[in-house]
Amino acid sequence: MLLGVVCALGAAVCFGTATVLQAVAARAAAAGGATGTGTLFLRAVRQWRYVAGLGLDAVGFVLQIIALRHVPIYAVGAALAASLAVTAVVAARLLRVRLSRLEWGAVGVVCAGLLMLGLASGEEGSGTGPPALAWGLLGVAGLVLVVGTVAGRLPDGSRALALGLAAGTGFGVVEVAVRLVDTVSLRELRNPALYALLLGGAAAFLLLTSALERGSVTAATAGLVLGETVGPALVGVAWLGDRTREGLAWLAVAGFAVAVAGSLALSRFGEPTES
Questions:
Q1: Same domain, yes or no, for 104 and 139?
Q2: pLDDT for 239-273, tens place per residue?
Q3: 32: three-class secondary structure by DSSP
Q4: What are the residues whose beta carbons fall under 8 Å from the beta carbon of 269, sequence distance 6 or more?
Q5: Structural domain count, the chain
């Protein structure tokens, strides 16, 4: 279980640091006269910071998969949401973003929540859920795309939140699907969870990009955090056998709530180019 906790925290560090490195590269590209999403991306991707950020994203994804194989989904989800705390701290150093006392307090709250979760979390559940769970995940992944298309037409005030929530749900599908895909083999090609993983991940990435480009970063990131933590945690407990240490369920619930609440308080760091 220790390996899983370390990997979950490592993934949070990778994702949080990658966001800042990519923001630095994007700002440099914009300062160089790049306009438009396509041109900005082409200039940014030529910089070592942006490439390093992509590399950290890849490493973080691998660590996330390893973590999901060793600790409950609720612990991994909370740790990934805590990447916002990493982003805030790194942004304060590299982007010279001023953190208020409340935001520094939120960073401390996130750390306290993760500590509580680490103390209370049991081992990864061994359940695979009902046979319909994998098909249900695939259906949810498809629904995410539909909802995202509709949400893109909403007024500015609610669009970013709806798109962020849909993106978070897509990432949540990935978290659960990882637990239902045993190995990379020809046999798994018949497993709907594999296609749920691919579709959910692709849909989530597209919708999150749209949310950050077309609305409030804070609202989009808040929706993302809620979507990728609450639903998967409930599925893990209800169907996949995720449990806590004996007598420490209350501490796990409290730690999860505290970590997510702290992350929500840091939602503006979902895309520090807007800070």
A1: no
A2: 999 999 999 999 999 999 999 999 999 999 987 76
A3: coil
A4: 19, 84, 87, 88, 91, 97, 221, 275
A5: 2
Rounded to the nearest 10°, the torsion over CA 7, 3, 116, 68 is 60
Q: Inform me whether the pLDDT recorded for 39 exceeds 80.
A: no
Contacts 24+ apart (CB under 8 A), 153-161: 156/214, 156/215, 159/211, 159/214, 159/215, 160/211, 160/212, 160/214, 160/215, 160/216, 160/217, 160/219, 160/220, 160/223, 161/215, 161/216, 161/219, 161/220, 161/222, 161/223
Rounded distance between C-alpha atoms, residue 81 and residue 87, angstroms:
11
How far apart CA 90 and CA 96 sit, in angstroms, is 9
- Cβ atoms of 90 and 20 within 8 Å: the answer is yes
Q: Are residues 189 and 108 in the same domain?
A: no
Q: Specify whether 10 is located in the same domain as 116.
A: yes
Domain limits for position 219: 126-241
